[in-house]
């Protein structure tokens, strides 16, 4: 088996796993401050908060733990929209993850507003002029993802933030694919609201964070009230083992990011060169744009991506974003980039990660070449 779907999820790093396993056997509730078991669980959460804050170079009190990026997006986007009723509209890029699109729809719907979508060009780059024309003082939040999960295309967060700030709208950045793969500044400092997830940076599933200053946190409407955890913004018992693992993974991301992305860039480039040498009719979605080095979204002309995947069951890649792949609808990201439904259905996302080796790349390239040739022959027959 070769796993090349790291944008969908990453394995827990072997340096994180032992501590997570140890914490699983500790049963104190971090909210039970009256006894030692609870206090020690609470201390573990606070250490993780320090680690996540330092990764982003943000104060520790800016970190609000959630169950993942989806929940953080709901808290950030719906919470901010509800807290600003005289500004019911939300602006998002057309290529945001479904989690952000759905949260924006919900926030706008509950506030009686609308979602305005910013166009992208054929390389997936956000059209800043269009963004500028959509932003006015009825807009509470402008949501721009730092890096796209399907194509790896990076967004002009600085330009989008300048436009949002002009009218006093909050800047929401989905950094789920960006954290651990790119230099985090200045993006982390430009965002009023930023979300990301443990299971994309070699931490356990079930933990994520919303990053917002204390001042912004005060304008958010809490959506999961109750126990008062996370300063009343996210009630519910903390997932201590996952949050501890998230903190350790964040610490590793800080030290490994540059090394990982340099190494992965070399492998991804070799992989692409090999495929192009051996197969005609390959197009890269996002070509020409600044992109994450680990993500290759490739169209194999005349070969249906799902048929290609079925033809190479030992190579694990994605024919669209993981959250969408249960439903076979064309990727909204590729459609927004002007691809037809057929072109989108011929596109495969290959994403490399920290454990990826040159051997795996060679095995995957062989398998993809054979599978594409086979599918093209069957289609032509
Ligand atoms: N945003 C982006 C860009 C993603 O890639 C994902 C997951 O695929 C999410 C949000 C949702 O993250 P989570 O799985 O932590 O809810």
State the low-pLDDT regions, or none: none
Beta fraction: 5-15%
Chain-averaged pLDDT: 96
* C-alpha-based Rg, rounded: 21 Å
Which strand order spans the largest sheet, edge to edge or round the barrel? 2-8-7-6-5-3-4
**Helix residue percentage:** 40-55%
Write out the distinct hetero groups bound to the structure.
Answer: pyridoxal-5'-phosphate
How is this structure best described in words?
The chain has 381 residues and is α/β, with parallel strands linked by helices. It is 42% helix and 14% strand. It has helices at 17-24, 36-56, 69-82, 98-111, 128-134, 157-166, 187-190, 214-217, 240-278, 305-310, 332-336, 341-345, 358-380, and strands at 2-3, 63-66, 89-93, 115-118, 139-145, 170-174, 193-197, 208-211, 282-284, 295-300, 315-316, 347-351. Helix 6 (157-166) links the parallel strand 5 (139-145) and strand 6. It is globular and about 70 Å long. The mean pLDDT is 96. Bound molecules: pyridoxal-5'-phosphate (PLP). Its cofactor is pyridoxal 5'-phosphate.
Short key terms for the protein model shown above:
381 residues, three-stranded antiparallel β-sheet, 13 helices, 42% helix, 14% strand, globular, binds pyridoxal-5'-phosphate
């Amino acid at each position: 088996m070769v796993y090349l779907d790291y944008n969908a999820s990453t394995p827990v790093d072997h340096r994180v796993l032992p501590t997570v396993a140890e914490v699983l056997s500790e049963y104190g509730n971090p909210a039970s401050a009256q006894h030692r078991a609870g206090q020690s669980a609470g201390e573990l959460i606070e250490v993780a908060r320090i680690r996540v804050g330092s990764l982003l170079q943000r104060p520790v009190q800016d970190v609000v733990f959630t169950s993942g990026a989806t929940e953080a997006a709901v808290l950030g986007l719906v919470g901010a929209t509800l807290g600003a009723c005289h500004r019911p509209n939300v602006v998002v890029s057309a290529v945001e993850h479904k989690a952000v699109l759905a949260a924006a729809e919900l926030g706008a719907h509950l506030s009686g507003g609308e979602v305005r979508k910013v166009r992208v060009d054929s390389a997936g780059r956000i059209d800043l002029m269009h963004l500028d024309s959509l932003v006015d003082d009825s807009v509470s939040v402008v949501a721009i993802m730092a890096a796209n999960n399907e194509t790896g295309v990076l967004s002009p967060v600085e330009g989008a933030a300048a436009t949002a700030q002009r009218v006093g709208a909050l800047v929401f950045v989905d950094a789920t694919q960006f954290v651990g793969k790119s230099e985090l500044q200045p993006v982390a400092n430009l965002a009023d609201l930023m979300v990301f997830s443990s299971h994309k940076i070699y931490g356990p599933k079930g933990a994520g964070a919303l990053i917002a200053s204390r001042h912004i946190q005060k304008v958010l409407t809490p959506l999961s009230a109750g126990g008062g955890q996370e300063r009343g913004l996210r009630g519910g018992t903390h997932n201590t083992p996952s949050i501890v693992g998230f903190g350790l993974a964040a610490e590793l991301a800080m030290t490994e990011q540059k090394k990982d992305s340099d190494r992965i860039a070399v492998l991804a480039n070799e992989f692409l060169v090999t495929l192009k040498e051996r197969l005609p009719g390959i197009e890269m979605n996002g070509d020409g744009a600044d992109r994450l080095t680990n993500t290759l979204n490739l169209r194999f002309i005349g070969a249906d991506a799902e048929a290609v995947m079925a033809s190479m069951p030992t190579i694990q890649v994605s024919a669209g974003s993981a959250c969408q792949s249960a439903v076979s609808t064309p990727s909204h990201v590729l459609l927004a980039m002007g691809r037809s439904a057929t072109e989108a259905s011929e596109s495969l996302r290959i994403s490399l990660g920290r454990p990826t080796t040159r051997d795996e790349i060679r095995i995957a390239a062989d398998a993809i070449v054979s599978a594409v040739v086979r599918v093209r022959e069957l289609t032509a027959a």
